Amino acid sequence: MKSAKTPHEVHAVLAAAFNTKDVNVVMNVYDANGIIFPEPGKEISGRAQFAEAVKSICAVPGVMEIKTVYCLQSGDVAVGRSEWSVTDNGKTQVAAKGIELMKQQPDGSWKIIIDHAFGAEANLIA
């Protein structure tokens, strides 16, 4: 599986990884020492819990698409805003607006360290 060479590639690489439905492939897009919010108000950290959250998302039937609304980079960190969905046979299974914090790795690739999948929803209260 291709790794993201720039922060602007992260969303496309993440969607392709999720579409493999392989938890290990998806986990390679993340820094598993980070955090993920697989649903509003639910923060997950720790490698085992992180993998379980990814497994649940991979279980949603359909194809994931991610549109990058913006990606802002400063040195070895970047923040992205996304609009994503999983669609199966023309029916949207889940869709949201997310915010992702990415960090460049020692090998030059980029990984997500914070994935707030619903972080840009208008009705979300922090």
Automatic annotation (TrEMBL):
Residues 14-102 form the SnoaL-like domain. Pfam families: SnoaL_2. It comes from the Bacteria. InterPro entries: NTF2-like_dom_sf (IPR032710), SnoaL-like (IPR037401). This is SnoaL-like domain-containing protein. It comes from Mucilaginibacter gossypiicola.
